[in-house]
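Predict structure. Chain length: 270.
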Amino acid sequence: MGYPSRLTAVSLVIGLFSALMRGVAPTALAQSRCAATYAIADGNTLSSIAAACGTTVAAILKANPAVSNPDYIRAGDTLTIPDPAASDLATSYIVAPGDALNVIAARFNTTVDELLAANPAIANPDVIFPGQYLAIPAPATETQPVTIYMIGPKSGEPAGQAMVCGDSVVPVEVSIAKTSTPVHDSLKHLLDLRYTFDEQTGLYNPLARSNLALESAQVVGNHATVKLAGRIYSDSLCEAPMIIAQIEQTARQFTGIKHVTVMINGQPLH
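Prediction complete.
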């Protein structure tokens, strides 16, 4: 079934306005404003189609994975229009310079896997572009706030606890899925971050330059032992202390932990 004519579309808009004037909630009309498919007309945009059909750009993008560029749609093509009542998407997001999927996932209390499922046009999770639209799924799991640590500049903001080489270790609050092993999961979140420099905050993440995996994070009394596997990339004497500070401070945020030992490939990391 094709989309109604322009005259019908105008009539729908007038009908919606009349309904609003009578006090009928717009969501009551959202489920019946469009057919299951929509034939794109000249001058249409995804946002105008979403508004006309009572849905969101994010939901349309998820229902139409062939649309790789939401700013480019062609008259005559057909879109699948999702049922607004069945949408599991919270919103859409425009990628900013310096963004990475894991940073966006943390910001919206979701995961990289869920972002990829909502945006099937993304072929490489490490490659997204400023200006790109992302569909943001609604959080599927209960979350909890935790703190991870990044490296601040030698001067200026944000500032944190001073450390060797004149830099500082700066706390950053993120959300992870609610867990009974917060030390392990916080450290895994930290190690999974793949950006080295956040242009929005000015913070540096030296861990992203290394190839490290978390083997375990065990807490006995007030002592946490963090075991890593892999290789640290370091081109200065300051790099290793930065990495140790990131890991130690992330583990020490939890009540009772006073001492942290970091091991890599079975050897203490100094």
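Summary: The chain has three domains: 1-85, 88-140, 143-268.
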